[in-house]
Amino acid sequence: MALKRKDLLGIRDLSVEEITLILETAESFKEVSGRDIKKVPTLRGKTVVNLFFEPSTRTRTSFELAAKRLSADVINFAASASSMAKGETLLDTARNIEAMQADIIVLRHPAAGAPDILARSLRASVVNAGDGGHEHPTQALLDLFTLREKKREFRGLRLVIVGDIAHSRVARSNIFALTKLGAEVRIVGPPTMIPHDIERLGVTVHFDLDEALQGADVIMMLRLQLERQGIALFPSIREYAHLYCLTPERVRLASPDVLVMHPGPINRGVEIAPEVADSVASTILEQVTNGIAVRMAVLYLLSGGK
Amino acid sequence: MDTQEINRALTRVAHEISERSRGVESVALVGIRTGGVHLAKRLARKLQEIEGVPVPVGELDITLYRDDLSARKEQPVLRKTEIPFDITDRKVILVDDVLFTGRTIRAAMDGLMDLGRPGEIQLAVLVDRGHRQLPIKATYVGKNLPTALEETVEVYLEEMGEADRVVILA
Amino acid sequence: MSASAGLLIRQGRVIDPGRVNGLADLLIQDGKIAAVGRDLRAPAGADVLEAQGKWVLPGLVDLHVHLREPGFEYKETIKTGTASAAAGGFTSVCCMPNTQPVNDTQSVTEFILDRARTEGVVHVFPIGAITKGSEGKELAEFADLKKAGCVAVSDDGRPVMNGLVMRRALEYARAFDLPVVDHCECLHLSEGGCVNEGLVSTELGLHGLPAAAEDVMVARNLELAVLTGGRLHLAHLSTAGSVRLVRDAKARGVRVTAEACPHHFLLTEEAVREFNTNAKMNPPLRTRKDVAAIKAGLKDGTIDAIATDHAPHAPFEKDREFEYAPFGIVGLETALALSLILVEEGVLTVEQLVTAMTAGPARAFGLAKGTLAVGADADVTVVDPDAQWTVDPEQFYSKGRNTPFGGWKLKGRVVTTIVGGRVVYP
To answer: What's the pLDDT tens digit per position in A6-62?
Structure first.
């Protein structure tokens, strides 16, 4: 089968078959990244544009490497430098880029739904690299890839997501993906960070971390954006850490071969205790490798004659 | 071709390889997915019978090197490349079931070059059906099978769950 | 069409709730309703409009319209806005003061009325601001505004956040018998929101506007109305909570009137999916429970009027990221047909619907409109209740194309709109 879509805007609309296809394709690309010559000519002559309206070194370099390893030409647009500052609209900017014969546009933007506007109006393929609080599909896919390598089976996997769910596009994408694949997803955080009606997406809600960790197979910690303290989401970092920091004692409440994941970088002592952080560090590094493989798979599957 | 003919052809090819290489010291077989992989393994077994030495076998997926990706509406499914040995300086024999336009072999050579610097590349095919579009020639041929362009040649093997045979379909 | 010789509208179903509901002729002379009855004779020189199979209604009254002039003429002007109103069967519109400059002085009110006189085609009743610049701090000069022609005061677009200021506004307005109209929204609770807070906002990763943000302000305003004895009018109710609070208040005898918009009784937050900015307005589309409550409120009279909150924007403004697109949709040209759906569904009788769009709003603001009594202004709307049509935003008289109803197949269409005895549409 193949990916019969022009764009990758989110996980919510992907079928289980499509997700599986992307993950299986990523396996082949992981092998390419392991070679001495980390390049294949597959996207030779294609142009991939990274259009990033939010600063991001990790995701952007990941996409850049993925495209380059496929022999595509890569251009990076950082919004502050370009004409956005002169008041050009998103659509105008993207149309200009398309006029340069861009084949794929990778967009990261602070407003939810921004990639959808581009996808509707451009012939080029659009990949969502994070739109506001909405979705970050390639991050979820690379989380799934890592999980698949380590845990094999998603169905019945007990997974706990901890932290600021309401503002996390990574959490949202992961929730869509994991519930689709049959995992049992528990979300934990202070009530101020749990979005309205989220149980209707198929997850269970907990405010008590210790209780939620019982028998967990996977713990996904989210980054706490410390600047959010100011708007009454939590009273102090001290209290947040007291309630939601992953300590060695808490890790022991989970199943013995629990996998701890974090999108990085870690706020040591806030989300994860220093002793636990070091073991998580190695998974974070694997995620970087897997991220490139998954993004290569996405770019490969979206390209193809139109 | 039927089971017996296939077997005889492979045996003859194995002897040819052993003779031309004067032993199999630096020889490695790389089967092109998917048809060539089973044949490569069979050849390796025969070579081991003849020479008494195991010959390494690898599997190469050439999808990423195809020259027709832009023209296709959907990207073909990828399979894994598994070559668990260093090909640099080796005599690599690519193995495929049917040699036709030669484009698959061109892609396979590009793929091999990205994995190392082989000392020599040779090509062994079960069937050569003619109609080359590139200047490619097989070093070892099981059988020459002249065909019309519109016909297709299918190779069925036991490993695929079928009786060994080669058929020409109109 | 000569206003003096008159106009006879023949054989239509005249619906003037409380007075007439049946086959009748309507005679207009000198810009006034001269007679209503069977088999009227046309005076010499008068024009005749055949209205067989049509409804003949008092001209519709819209309490909540944004005409955008002065200051935002690229979105709409008084000329295009009133043309849009006429196409929708509205003969009187009340325009909100969030123009540029804000209508908080006599001179801006006079400008609007002057424009309406020279370029408008329907009656324009300005609503003045409650506070200077609508900043919510100092009261505007209500006496001047009333003298210049304002019929109510409102800071619409924004709520009056400060309870003391709202109290003073209700008290001060009593001296001029001006209704005080509030857009009920606690800005702290709704901060950053752009859709209803619920399942859709959670799935789309958008900040939500909780229903409570409206309910708490409705409750506050009702208590202030009790405290001050002032005249309170609540704009565009959208939640079940608001309807319940108003119902209880009316039962207690509080002097309050309320309006609701067609999109709040026909659409839910589901319309926002796919990040459709043409379904983005404030207050936002809510849930089915809220839609049912609005319908019930219209049925039992808790809600006095159907208003449009017609809010045109230039297409390029809406054609962008959902969060950054401005709130608002147009409504003048679709309101009647959309509201007729309530009659189809059996929620309202024809008379109740007509009242909600004529006498109900007129009464709320004390306007001498919304009636076909002899001697009343000849503002008449003729409707073909069976006409089937498809909403095509590109054909709107309004400059705005921002509607979520594009493509809807509707039944019921305005065929003639008459203002002061003159046909202004088509």
So the answer is: 999 999 999 999 999 999 999 999 998 888 888 898 899 899 999 999 888 889 999
Helix (H) or strand (E) holding C22: strand C20-29
Cα-based angle C304, C308, C310 (whole degrees, multiple of 5): 150
Using a CB–CB cutoff of 8 Å, tell me whether C147 touches chain A. no
If you search the block for the tokens 């399942």, which residue do you land on? C199
Interface test with A, best of C190, C275, C289 (most A CBs within 10 A): C275
Q: Is the dihedral of CA C260, C18, C84, C159 positive or negative?
A: negative
Q: Which of C255, C235, C284, C259 is closest to C96 using CA atoms?
A: C235
CA atoms within 13 A on the CB side of A198: 28
Chain C closest-CA separation from residue A31 CA (Å): 35
Helix, strand, coil percentages for chain A (3-state, nearest 5): 45, 15, 40
Decide: C313 and C400 in contact? Cβ < 8 Å: yes
A197–C204 CB contact, under 8 Å: no
- Given an 8 Å threshold on Cβ–Cβ distance, is C204 in contact with A116? no
Instruction: Quick: pLDDT tens for A232-275.
Output: 677 788 888 889 999 999 999 999 999 999 987 788 888 999 88
Please tell me the pTM assigned to this model: 0.83
Measured between alpha carbons, how far is residue C5 from residues C43, C63, C153, C377, C416 in Å?
7, 32, 39, 16, 19
Partners of C386 in the β-ladder: none
User: A192 to chain C: which residues are within 8 Å by CB?
Assistant: none
Q: Which of A108, A109, A262, A295 is catalytic?
A: A108
Q: Please name which of C212, C224, C122, C107 lies closest in space to residue C173, comparing C-alpha atoms.
A: C224
> Is B79 within 8 Å of A28 when comparing Cβ atoms?
yes
- Please check whether residue C272 touches A, CB under 8 A: no
DSSP-assigned states of every residue in chain B: --HHHHHHHHHHHHHHHHHHTTSSTTEEEEEETTHHHHHHHHHHHHHHHHHSS---EEEE--GGG-S-TTT-SSPPPP---B--S--TTSEEEEEEEEESSSHHHHHHHHHHHHH---SEEEEEEEEE----SSS---SEEEEE----TT-EEEEE-GGGTS-SEEEEE-
Is C320 close to A198, i.e. CB distance below 8 A?
no
The answer to whether residues A294 and A33 touch, using CB atoms and an 8 Å cutoff, is no
Report helix angle C350-357 to C288-299, nearest 10: 90
Q: Is C44 helix (H, G, I), strand (E, B) or coil?
A: coil
- Contact call for C322 and A112, based on CB within 8 A: yes
The answer to whether residue C72 neighbours chain A at the CB level (below 8 Å) is no
- Collect all residues of chain B within an 8 Å Cβ-Cβ radius of residue A69: none
Residue C199 with chain A: CB contacts under 8 Å: 196-197, 200
What H or E segment, with its residue span, contains residue C107?
A: helix C106-119
Mean pLDDT of A187-205: 92
